[in-house]
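Quick check before the chapter quiz. The format below is the same one you will see on the exam, so make sure you can read both the input and the output lines.
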Amino acid sequence: MSQESVRLFVESWTNCWTLALGLGYIGRTLYWPALAALCSETAARAMFFSSMVVVLVFCTQGFPPAGLFLSGWAIGMTLIRRTVLSSS
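Here is the expected output.
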């Protein structure tokens, strides 16, 4: 696995999950239950725990910077999600 393929994977991982959680927030705002499911607690936990599995794989395969970036992103998204949803 090369540095470039790891970078592309991390970018696509973060973009896809950010898009999914963002669409869920829009669905929640528009009262669209099917789309709001993307912003549910279950979806957020799935994002967090699957990201932590990917971080573990990156760290064991010799790509700790990618793991650090991904774990920081997952923690940040969780905090932003909780802040935004607690204010509404």
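If your answer matched, good. The CA atoms of residues 25 and 39 lie 6 Å apart.
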